[in-house]
Design goal:
- 70% of the residues lie in helices and 0% in strands.
- It is mainly alpha-helical.
- Helix 2 crosses helix 5, helix 6 runs antiparallel to helix 8 and helix 7 crosses helix 9.
- The C terminus is likely disordered.
C-alpha cells in the first residue's frame, strides 16, 4: 500500500509511506459520498469529487447499475484492512445518511453539516486536551480514555468559562442532533485522527536536527 497517497495525487509526508491521516480522511470522505450516492440515488459523479477520483483511479466497477454500492464495499474493506475500522462505525454512517439524505436536495446540506461538525469537533477536542495529546502513542488506552472523557464533556458539561468554547459546544450539539452520531462513534473518529496525527513527521523538528 506504499503507493496509496499518490493514487489521490497527494505527496506522502514520507517517501513510500501510506495509511497516514490524509489517506484516512480521504477514505472517510469517499465512504460518506458512496453511501450518499446509494441512499439518494445519485448517478452524476461530478457531485461527489472524492468518490469520482476513488472510482476512476482504482477502477471500481459499478454494481447492479447503482452508484455507491460497489464503491462503498471497496472503501469499507480498505478502511478495515488499513486502519482496523469496526463494522459499527460504518453502520452509524449508513444510518445517519439514510435519515438525512432521502433525496438529492438533502445532500449538499448534509455534507456541509458534517464538514462543519467534524472540523469543530477536532478543533475543540485539540483545544480542550492540549498537553494530554503530547503523551506517547504507546499509551493508547489512556489516550482513548482521555479522548472519550473530552467528548462526553463536550456533550454534558455546561460550565465552560470561555465564551468561544461555549459557542462551539452549542454548535457541535446542534449539528449532532441532526446527524445522529453516538458518542462512541465520535470518540472513535476523533481518536483515530489523533493517533494518526501523532505519527505524522514534524517538519520543524526535522529542520532543527539538520542544522
Amino acid at each position: 500500500m506504499g503507493f496509496f497517497s499518490k493514487l489521490f495525487g497527494k505527496k506522502s509526508a514520507e517517501e513510500g509511506r501510506a495509511g497516514g491521516m490524509e489517506d484516512y480522511m480521504t477514505l472517510i470522505r469517499v465512504y460518506f459520498q458512496a453511501a450518499i450516492a446509494e441512499s439518494a440515488g445519485i448517478t452524476n459523479l461530478a457531485m461527489l469529487p472524492d468518490l469520482r477520483l476513488f472510482k476512476t483511479t482504482l477502477r471500481v466497477p459499478t454494481v447492479n447499475n447503482k452508484l455507491g454500492v460497489g464503491e462503498k464495499r471497496h472503501c469499507r474493506k480498505m478502511l478495515k484492512d488499513i486502519y482496523g475500522t469496526e463494522d459499527d462505525f460504518f453502520k452509524e454512517i449508513d444510518q445517519s445518511i439514510r435519515k438525512n439524505c432521502r433525496k438529492i436536495q438533502d445532500v449538499q446540506t448534509y455534507m456541509v453539516q458534517f464538514q462543519n461538525f467534524s472540523q469543530d469537533m477536532m478543533m475543540l477536542t485539540g483545544n480542550l486536551m492540549k498537553f494530554k495529546l503530547r503523551m506517547p502513542s504507546f499509551f493508547k488506552k489512556t489516550l482513548y480514555k482521555m479522548t472519550e472523557k473530552t467528548v462526553y464533556d463536550i456533550f454534558d458539561k455546561n460550565d465552560f468559562s470561555d465564551p468561544g468554547v461555549l459557542k462551539t459546544v452549542a454548535g457541535i450539539r446542534a449539528y449532532d442532533k441532526r446527524l445522529g452520531f453516538s458518542r462512541k462513534w465520535i470518540t472513535d473518529f476523533v481518536f483515530g485522527v489523533v493517533m494518526l496525527a501523532k505519527k505524522e513527521p514534524r517538519p520543524d523538528g526535522d529542520a532543527e536536527q539538520k542544522k
